[in-house]
Write a structure and sequence with these properties.
Distance between the termini: 43 Å
Strand order of the largest sheet: 1-2
Number of helices: 13
Structural class: mainly alpha
Largest sheet: 2 strands, antiparallel
Helix content: over 70%
Length: 345
Amino acid sequence: MIRRILFASLALAPLTILLHYVASPGETWEFVLAAVALVPLAWLIGEATEHAAEHTGPGVGGFLNATFGNAPELIIALIAVNEGLTEVVRGSLIGSVVGNVLLVLGFSLLFGGDGAVDRRSSFVSLGLVGFAVALFLIPAVPGWSGDPERASLDGVSTPVSVALLAVYLLVTGRSLRRHRAAHDGADPDIESWSFRAALVTLGVATVLTAFVAEILVGSLEAFAEKAHLSDFFVAAVIVAIVGNAAEHGGAVVVAHRGKITLAAEIALASSAQVAVFLIPAVTLLAWLIDPLALSFRPVEIGALGAAVAFTAIVLRDGRSSRARGLALLAAYAAVAVAFGIAGDR
């Protein structure tokens, strides 16, 4: 049923693009349509990379999953960089990590109920995010005074990004196998597409995502103004949730089927992947457009660090329960309120 709805809603992408260039429905409506249209596109990219992985083996297939699984967030971030919306870029990336750690894991534990999670694996992922937070402090702290976009912070952000990517490469084999296993567990009955069909689907979905993401970013400021929300809040909460929506839903469905361990793997491995792969990748690619400083604000660093510490406490004994899920969701609500109060820099 859910798959049929997602397939049907793929029509929203060309509709959104058509309305943007032909009818001009207004930036507020464009933002809403683009946000909704990104959800099935993110799901389709995940499907295509998973089917491609069946033909390439776990190594190359895992790399495809890792790279294109984050395509919507990557495209949104690079378009925002091109538009000069650096606060939107940083907010959406931090919001993605926090959302995986608290929101997705929280819903997974809530729907999964009592059970066990892989404590060792969970703490490896949390440790990677914690390591990323520690390195983010290097360019972030100097950015708390003076111009947060100054060239010296761009320069400091580069070695930080290289170091994070080096760590990612060291653990990529294990994390990518886990990522692949998570998708296999979530959709065990799907027949594999041909490799050509998977690549064509992946290409078309990525191109559509680029167009829709451009519309989303272009209408973000107008939507934020109409909704009386800061650009930062829209990016860190709404855009971050939309960019991960398909993967978020997959984790919750898996948890509801009783596979709590697998659901926790999806949520926490995804958060680690964004922290040590996507954020540094965006930073390095931004040099081709406009340098991006990792000058995160105290509220962003604090939220990320607190999310890691609180989740570690919740999972300290490797057990899951609905009460723990509710606790994580309450923590995410507190972070969202903090993001709302913080407003734009």
